Amino acid sequence: xxxxxxxxxxxxxxxxxxxxxxxxxxxxxxxxxxxxxxxxxxxxxxxxxxxxxxxxxxxxxxxxxxxxxxxxxxxxxxxxxxxxxxxxxxxxxxxxxxxxxxxxxxxxxxxxxxxxxxxxxxxxxxxxxxxxxxxxxxxxxxxxxxxxxxxxxxxxxxxxxxxxxxxxxxxxxxxxxxxxxxxxxxxxxxxxxxxxxxxxxxxxxxxxxxxxxxxxxxxxxxxxxxxxxxxxxxxxxxxxxxxxxxxxxxxxxxxxxxxxxxxxxx
Length: 266
Hints:
The protein is of the alpha+beta class. The chain has helices at 15-22, 48-60, 89-107, 120-126, 167-177, 210-215, 231-235, 253-265, and strands at residues 2-8, 28-34, 39-45, 76-83, 111-114, 147-151, 156-162, 182-189, 192-199, 220-226.
């Protein structure tokens, strides 16, 4: 089984986002949205739902009118395939490559592949400059931009709010904690600031370790999980800390897969 965590450049609750989410059908496990990021993270399983969501987003969204604090290269910004259960990274790479060919052929959408070859930050830095698309046109789609399509292990998207509205401080903290196992950005989110993180090796540097790293450099006001977390990562954390860390058993990938199975069986 493959998980796919599609990030789209639309974070407002309303009929547009609802229609895009509906395209995923029963394969949609979770939706996390943020109006200030102007971004929604749709966690799905399989390969068909990500294609349906991508088609709906390209059809209805326009990057030229997009405003949001999160970096993006397209209305469908990131499409990572993640192996679950007995699936392997090779399976995820094959799904990634199939998606790249499909998006180029069907939607005329430039796709940049990441994973074993290169990390996602390299695409954000080099796309359409030193780095040509893996598939599709050599320039951005006029309304949809481009998409970064990946194959990666599970990660945890996690945000820490600062008890201070100093954006420069948030950016300094992000630079200081950033490393091979942790990607971080300091962002202005409404009238607050946050350190927005991807915990790319959550089994060794997870949601219990990241907030203290931030707190050592700046006062912290709270934490927020974005999307889902692997059950093994959650259970490595003392349950007495779950509430403060914005964690819960229901927000594990496994819990949502169980829920999906019951829906499909009913």
